[in-house]
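Recap for those who missed Tuesday's class. We walked through two folding examples back to back. For each one, the amino acid string is listed first and its predicted structure tokens come directly after. Nothing is annotated here on purpose, so try labeling regions yourself before you check the end of the notes.
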Amino acid sequence: MSDDGTGRQGPKGEFRRERSRPLPPEDRRSPTTGRVTIPSADVRRRRARLLLMSALSVLVLLASGGSWAVTGWMSGHLSRFDVFGGLSEQGRPENETGGLTFLVIGSDSREEANREDQGDLDVGSVEGQRSDTIMLVRLNHERDRLTVIGIPRDLWVDIPGQGKDKINAAYAHGGPQLSVQTVESLTDVRIDHYVEVDFHGFVDVVDSLNGVEVCLPEAIDDPKAHLDMEAGTHQVDGVDALAFARTRATEGGDLDRIDRQQQVLSAMLDKALSNETLSDPNKLTAFLDSSLSSITVDEGLDTSAINQLAYQMRDVDLDAVTFTQVPIADMDHWTSRGDVALLWEEEAAREIFADVRADRPITDEEPAQESGDEGVGDPVPSDIAVRVFNGTATPGLGAELDDHLAEAGFDVTDRADDWVSRDLPQSEVRHGPGREEQAAYVAEMIPDSETVEDKTLDGDLQIVIGFNYTTFHPPEVEEEASVETETPEGGPPATTTAEDNVCG
């Protein structure tokens, strides 16, 4: 095995690297008592938001709002690698908003595992190191929202200087640097930090949490991974969690695999943020020891940077963590060398990464349509806010119409009230500028009513009942299709939050 001084070692220039040694923790002993000080349970609870990324990245460890006492100790336990030092700035994407993007690699290195360990973990004994899991994690400029985008490892892409290959081969060819270059060229998103976790670290973290809970919509039987699970909810230890996160023995293959990885991450975050973990100093220390010993980060994530991010992310919670994955156009693309890979749906993927660059949240909803646009179809009741007023002397008409509107799905903003006069001859649907279409839509449901523009109104409509009011005709409800339909090409990606992914 040779070393050419570039960090490339081994046969055929395959990437090898020696991990840096963790720095020693700073002394936290009290100058008066000589005892090691332990933060309060409340402080540890805030710091535990540090735990999303120690499952497969360091961002959970950053979301704590901790102090120098914890972040300095944490920083000293992390291994570091000079990921960006050798990268040329020429051609790299710009950071347009001040958000931070982390490239998170789950490494399937077998180099430090003996044969018994390899058998226990069912990871095989193939030499070398590849990126088994690839995630792009975006922390927005306000530091209150995380977006996690799963990138399938078998995605067929251009690897700079290597040509076409599956994206996980970038690590084998050139380590973290080439992985960063490949993802940046693919997404046009600048990578600010790099985080890497290995197999053993993943298992140790789950075990330090006394296992996590996962849910299966259908059974999985994967003899190769020694995984046999019935449909339902399961409590799994580290080895089974690894098998659950890595198996591809389901119809969706690598895409199902990403969904399961996101479910495990969410379960780990939920468990790590629980009082059971945070209130017990021994459990918290064991968890952090397991998490940190398996993580390698870029040199830019020093104590100062970690402390700053920890404070900024102190309020990030489960429902502020959104998961999605790169949309796929072809699951069975035969490559030029004769194996099967995945092709992304380029237009939809580029929209996702444009949202990331602009710090926009990624949702699975179509963009809202402006009511004044022509040719966009009928308005939807749930998108229309209304308030009812009774312009007659007949009591109870307003409350009755309130009930009809609510049953039809309209957003009734407040209880009906009396109008300024009690002798209105004709019912009115009053609207602000640009709301003509919505007003006309509602007026069709109230026979002989008229629409009236009121420049003092903004988004809400006002229905004023007149003496000619007789009834309300609810809109017709279209029957839902009896079969599920796939998202059309270019449509919004499916998204979930960490809260959604937790069982139950």
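Example two. Treat it independently of the first, because the proteins are unrelated.
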Amino acid sequence: MATKFDIITGNDTIFNNKEYITDSIIFNTIESARNESEYTMYSDHKNVIILTAKKGHKVWLWTSSSIKDDTNKLIDICRFLRDCKIPKAEIYLKQDVAGNFSDLYALTTLEINYVVKDEFSLAVYTYSGEEISNIPGIALENDEKIILINKNNPQHIKLVTDFYTQLKDEFRWNDKFERKVNEYLDMELYAFIKDGRMIANAAIGGKTEQYLRIRSIAVLPNERKKGYGYKMCVFAVNKIKERDLTPILYTHIGNASAVALWGKSGFNVKDKLYLLKIENNE
């Protein structure tokens, strides 16, 4: 008999499970979404949490360690996601169940023509350093300033639009540029301004009782390797530490420049995630 998944709230008892509490650092998004209306959470009330975002088609999946050896349970999860009929989805799950899950998902979705478009690992970093605001080399010059973007300010909108226009090809945003710009305008976004233009930024969001996520650090291509990414990382870390929270972030394991930046800035790998991108092939 297939497992039944019910819609749950942030008060479900699974959130008090010892293994979940220990593991939830991996899924900061689940923690930050527990009281957010744009998410729907499903659970079998024992082993598995499935979090489906109504925006962005992201699915965050938490499993207990025992599921690695439970093929039937993994198949039930795959079939549940298949039946949700999400046209394009990004599924995040633990690295240690990734191999079995991706293979089973491919098998259980054949009849409705889903295909796996990409799959790779993400490193989960947490900040373990001390206050770093006094490190030499991060002070701003006279022609530099950092501002908080206000989405209701036309000048700020232009700064953000001009900035991401120069990055849209690299980020592959050509068919979703306006939507992505609006997403960043809705974030807590800090812009590094030099000579009146944004040359770097840092986005923060996804708060839990203990952690706050650095969602991105971005620098214009012709301004890289000049220390601006490091300055924005330090700035974001200190903004988070001012709130007595621990910075957390995710990055592609193969992104050598980002990995080097996080290490230099006091971050250490806490765990690894697996990302499976699928879409309907019709």
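Answers for example two:
The radius of gyration is 20 Å.
The chain has a mean pLDDT of 85.
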